[in-house]
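Supplementary Methods, section 5.1.

A reviewer requested that the exact input to the structure prediction be made available. We therefore reproduce it here, unchanged from the version used in the analyses.
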Amino acid sequence: MSDTDIETIENWMRSTRTGRVSVRKQGDKIRIDVDGMSKVIPYSDEVYEKLKALANEIRAQFRGSTSVPGVSDVALFQATVRGKKPIVEQTMEKLAWLQGAILDFGSEAMIAILLASGENPDNIPEIVARSKDKDTFVNYMASKLYSIISAARECGDAAALRDEVLEKELKLYLLEEKFDELASQVVALASEVSRLRRMHEIALALMDQDQLERYSRVLQLAGLLREGGLSE
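The structure derived from this sequence is encoded token-by-token as follows.
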């Protein structure tokens, strides 16, 4: 394969969205699996080792990624925030600058919540303008905020499932490698058996009649010993 073809394969491997990447031998080919899709290329020791190292690197990056923190109970979170409101108000009465800071931060937070919820930035002025009063707008923003919290919780669950899938994929990959190793041993043993059989046939062909008879008696004796037909 050309360097360009290998680079294309590497870019395809790096494009994974799940980290499910594996590289293994398949006869005289190399099989690459990425997110459930497979490609097969001609085998080369250098290419195989290179792609295998890249697959290990990609899986390690996904295993080391940080999960998104979630909130286990949005209703509890909402109740807790509302329960702390009097404490915040009492603090604001004592600190003159805090109210201005909250107002400034609030505007930034409002824009951040709307953007995080998927609203088009160009539509933000219209969203604010069409709100009838403060309560309507606050409820609208609260609903957006709690939706983001719920999504964060679900993302956290998804991240945990992704880690579990990656772990199982890694175990499967290791088992496939072990299978390939055992398959190679079977091929080697079959070759050795074939070599010994040829040597046996050659030896028989070189024996004279007397040697063949003695060899036959030895085989019969060995058979009786295996069957327990002779007493000590």
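Residues 66-73 have pLDDT under 50 and may be disordered. These observations are discussed further in the main text.
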